[in-house]
Design brief:
The structure holds 2 protein chains of 2 kinds.
Chain A: H1 6-22, H2 24-47, H3 54-57, H4 59-64, H5 67-79, H6 82-86, H7 90-94, H8 100-133, H9 136-143, H10 146-173, H11 177-187, H12 189-199, H13 207-231, H14 234-239
Helix pairs in contact in A: 1-8, 2-5, 2-8, 5-8, 5-10, 5-11, 8-9, 8-10, 10-11, 10-13
Chain B: H1 12-15, H2 27-32, H3 36-40, E1 46-57, E2 60-71, E3 75-79, H4 86-93, E4 101-106, E5 109-110, H5 116-122, E6 123-126, H6 138-148, H7 155-164, H8 180-192, E7 198-202, H9 210-225, E8 229-234, H10 237-243, E9 246-251, E10 253-258, H11 260-267, E11 271-276, H12 283-288, E12 293-300, E13 303-308, H13 311-324, E14 329-334, H14 339-355
Parallel strand pairs in B: 3-8, 3-9, 6-7, 7-8
Antiparallel strand pairs in B: 1-2, 1-4, 4-5, 9-10, 11-13, 11-14, 12-13
Chain lengths: 246, 356
């Protein structure tokens, strides 16, 4: 990752965020999805019995919030490269001094920023609603779900990172947007599986588990980012043919 | 950075690909009509030097053994039919595609993978489709590219680029709302942003109506007057004839390079066109009696094309002979060959060579 120019990465991020804001369907999809994922956990908290079993009962609804950073960025990531190619903007972009690492980091950051902002906003809203309006015992139980809350904080950027890098990897190689989005969605299943296993108690969420999984995800994200860099071949992107290498 | 006198070889060694192929049959003709001054450019040192550049995609050759130079401040036309290899050549010189063999120096920098960023910093390429972000405004599109070129405080540059293409009053418009001609102009403004050493314009008038095409022509003429080096690919011959100092004709191999008028002179012998009120009774007898006439043929009744070595020398004696034979002469003048004639002649030769 030598010779990164931060101003060029910033230019990519600024343009991407502008583009998202102008496309109503993206804004609506970004707003609706988190709202839907907020409903179930909130209802669960208000319907939960105030008993000793409360803490365990609340694991799944809380972990459901982790679906937001997995599902939300996958569509954007899958569109990121092949979408530019389809709309004819990729070739002019590749003729500039922009390096592939800068392009990939800029694109990834531009997807990560709204994903994190919305995910943490939803978590914050959920905790605020619970703190203000829920039964005191339930509220206390939620705020004492230390490992789960830690998992929420740690996993959110890392799961989003997974969804983004996998989506972008698919996007670099895909021939059309629809295929990329379908494959990107499928590729985000493994982290969803981890979330489900945590939620249904197959993997018990402890501090150690949360940290181990977080480190594992971090390693995967960084390696996947490097892999995309290697896959990003200007000649292949422009002509569809693989460039010959020494 | 020092500017090398010769392009660095980035052929088989750098790209690890097969060695160069033997020169194709058509190359002999290209050499015979490619004179040295035309190869070297006309207005100063070379902005672009291409030496035996070849690109193959598997078994298919996009272009082969292409060599030419473009001088600073020159408008260089790169002509060829669809599939001739024009766009692939531009993409190769723009570091989007690695050549299979051969070498080039672009804006003083040897063409090689490690020099890609430096080369792209010093050139600008406008692909056939301008590729604008339609949900962004004209200014926002240019701001993005200014950022990618690392231009800080780009406002004045953007204004200047928009003024140069007469789009100052449309700066706040969404690109999606612009006509094709206006989008093409935004694309041109984008190439001007970084003050490039070479501008590559790939079919800049493709798909434009005549008015929009004329606007683009005028912009290119304006840039030429400012001394910008332009590499213009086109298959519109009248466009090349109007805009370019020199042209190269590509048909996978480079068929010829030179000034349009030189190519005409090299490819076609001198000819006089004679028109008479009534068809001549004995044209063969009449024309063979004139020593300056080497051959003749009739295109239609009363219209004759005479092959002569020097039309200016031959015209007076032809006129005298016709008048003395009692012919009513309507017109006598030098036959004009367009760049289109040159192009078709060369493409015909290729077709015939392949048929044999």
């Amino acid at each position: 990752m030598m010779g990164l120019d931060v101003s060029r990465i910033r230019a990519v991020i600024r343009k991407e965020l502008r583009d998202y804001r102008r496309k109503r369907s993206i804004v609506v999809a970004m707003a609706v999805l988190p709202a839907i994922f907020l409903i179930q956990p909130t209802l669960s908290v208000f319907l939960a019995p105030a008993s000793d079993a409360t803490a365990k009962y609340l694991d799944l609804p809380l972990l459901l919030l982790l679906l937001i950073p997995v599902i939300m960025p996958s569509t954007l990531a899958a569109y990121s490269v092949v979408g530019e190619r389809e709309q004819g903007t990729l070739e002019p972009l590749l003729t500039t001094p922009l390096r592939r690492h800068e392009f990939i980091l800029g694109k990834a950051a531009a997807i990560m920023i709204p994903t994190l902002a919305l995910s943490f906003t939803v978590f914050g809203l959920f905790l605020a609603v619970v703190g203000l309006f829920a039964n005191r015992d339930i509220s206390s139980a939620v705020f004492h779900q230390g490992p789960v809350l830690l998992a929420l904080v740690l996993f959110t950027p890392l799961l989003a990172g997974w969804a983004i890098v996998v989506g972008m990897a698919v996007s670099v190689r895909a021939s059309e947007v629809r295929v990329a989005q379908q494959l990107g969605m499928i590729a985000s299943f493994p982290p969803l599986g981890v979330v489900v296993l945590l939620g249904i108690g197959v993997i018990h969420p402890t501090f150690t588990v949360a940290v181990v999984f977080a480190v594992g995800l971090l390693v995967i994200d960084v390696r996947a980012l490097r892999l995309i860099s290697r896959m990003f071949d200007r000649e292949r992107l422009v002509t569809g043919a693989k460039a010959a290498r020494p | 950075m020092t500017v090398p006198h010769h392009p660095a070889d980035v052929g088989a060694g750098a790209y690890g690909l097969e060695s160069e192929t033997a020169a194709p049959p058509s190359r002999a003709r290209a050499e015979s009509i490619t004179d040295a001054p035309a190869l070297r450019g006309t207005k100063g040192s070379s902005a672009l030097v291409v030496d035996r550049l070849t690109k193959r995609f598997g078994g298919r050759t996009a272009f082969s053994e292409v060599s030419f130079e473009v001088a600073h401040g020159e408008v260089f036309g790169f002509l060829g039919s669809n599939g001739a290899g024009k766009t692939t050549t531009v993409r190769t010189l723009g570091t989007l595609i690695a050549p299979t063999s051969g070498s080039a120096t672009v804006a003083g920098i040897p063409l090689s993978p490690e020099n890609g960023v430096d080369i792209r910093q010093r050139i600008a390429i406008m692909p056939e489709a301008p590729g604008l972000y339609l949900r962004l405004t004209v200014t926002e599109n240019l701001e993005y590219f200014a950022g990618l070129y690392g231009l800080h405080q780009a406002g004045p540059r953007i204004e200047a680029a928009l003024d140069a293409v007469n789009l100052g009053d449309r700066a706040g418009d969404l690109c999606g709302g612009l006509s094709k001609g206006l989008r093409q102009r935004v694309g041109l403004a984008r190439t001007l942003l970084s003050d490039p050493a070479i501008m590559f314009l790939d079919e800049p008038t493709s798909g434009l109506d005549p008015v929009a095409a004329l606007e683009v022509h005028n912009l290119i003429i304006g840039l030429r007057q400012k001394g910008v080096t332009i590499f213009l690919t086109t298959h519109r011959l009248e466009e090349a004839e109007k805009l370019c100092d020199r042209v190269a004709i590509l048909n996978t191999t480079l068929r010829t390079v030179g000034r349009p008028e030189d190519l005409r002179a090299q490819l076609f012998t001198g000819a006089l066109v004679v028109k008479t009120l009534m068809p001549l009774t004995h044209p063969d007898q009449l024309f063979r009696a004139i020593s300056a006439v080497e051959d003749w043929h009739s295109e239609e009744p009363g219209t004759y094309v005479l092959s002569v070595s020097d039309p200016r020398v031959a015209a007076p004696s032809v006129t005298r002979q016709l008048v003395s034979a009692g012919a009513d002469v309507l017109f006598i003048g030098e036959a004009q060959h367009s760049l289109e004639d040159v192009y078709l002649e060369l493409i015909d030769e290729d077709f015939e060579a392949r048929s044999r």
